[in-house]
Design a protein that fits this description.
Blueprint: H1 4-21, E1 30-34, H2 40-48, E2 53-56, H3 59-73, E3 78-81, H4 90-96, E4 99-103, H5 106-114, E5 121-127, H6 143-151, E6 156-163, H7 171-191, E7 199-201, H8 208-213, E8 218-221, H9 223-226
Parallel strand pairs: 1-2, 1-8, 2-3, 3-4, 4-5, 5-6, 6-7
Helix pairs in contact: 2-3
The structure holds pyridoxal-5'-phosphate.
């Protein structure tokens, strides 16, 4: 059994250290515990240990888990979708998740808006800085136009940007991607009529401290909390 309490304490301490190095308030960094492949019981346990935000990368896997966690803890954490969403699962995703971090096309955003049924849907635009043509995510040059079109959709609340450092990045390459995400956000805030975009979701187990130094407001941490995935 993983020592979930100890793991969470260590992650929180590392977040505080990284924030201190950057002169930032650690309270300005939201920790999302990424529970993909983990059973509902482990999710319930980390919620009991103070984790309020939980991330899953697949609608199908989350479907049963969200319900089971609810039954175990009686309260609802904030559920974040952090993996690719097929448009035909948009309705189901809206039922399960409080935030969709992985919006990677305008068509997906339009589908979410159309299925919102009066609700305001919190989303992040996923941006990819690497060279793999098959990876999902907006390319940096596409983001401004995409954000403009999404800001016109009333039922969407475009809260910011999300990225995953390109696969195989060195720490310096990951840091460069995080810095570019922050710069992109600043650029958008200057150019777009509605300058919210407060959130920067970046950083996972191997690189969340770097991401915090570069301005992350949300970090998505799986293995450092739950242990290695089986
Ligand atoms: C799995 C995953 C994470 C967490 O990764 P760890 O290395 O376990 O911290 C974060 N973000 C996304 C998009 C993921 O798929």
């Amino acid at each position: 059994m993983a020592d979930l309490r100890g793991n969470i304490e260590r992650v929180r301490a590392s977040i505080a250290d990284a924030a201190a190095r950057a002169g930032r308030d650690p309270g300005a960094v939201t920790l999302v515990g990424v529970s993909k492949t983990q059973p509902a019981e482990a999710v319930a346990e980390v919620i009991g240990l103070g984790i309020e935000h939980v991330g899953e990368n697949r609608v199908q896997e989350a479907a049963g888990k969200v319900e089971r966690v609810q039954a175990l803890v009686g309260t609802r954490p904030h559920w974040h979708l952090i993996g690719t969403l097929q448009r035909n699962k948009a309705r189901q995703a809206l039922d399960l998740f409080d935030m969709i971090q992985s919006v990677d096309s305008v068509r997906l955003a339009e589908t979410l808006a159309a299925r919102a049924e009066g609700r305001t849907v919190s989303i992040l635009l996923e941006v990819y800085f690497g060279a793999d043509p098959d990876r999902p995510g907006f390319r940096p040059a596409e983001v401004e136009e995409a954000a403009r079109r999404m800001l016109a959709l009333e039922s969407l609340d475009v809260q910011g940007l999300m990225t995953v450092a390109p696969f195989g990045s060195t720490p310096e390459q990951a840091r460069a991607a995080f810095r570019r995400l922050r710069q992109l956000r600043e650029q958008l805030q200057e150019r777009l009529p509605v300058a919210r975009l407060t959130e920067l979701s970046m950083g996972m187990t191997d690189d969340y401290q770097l991401a915090i130094e570069e301005g992350a407001t949300i970090v998505r941490v799986g293995r450092a909390i739950f242990g290695e995935r089986g």
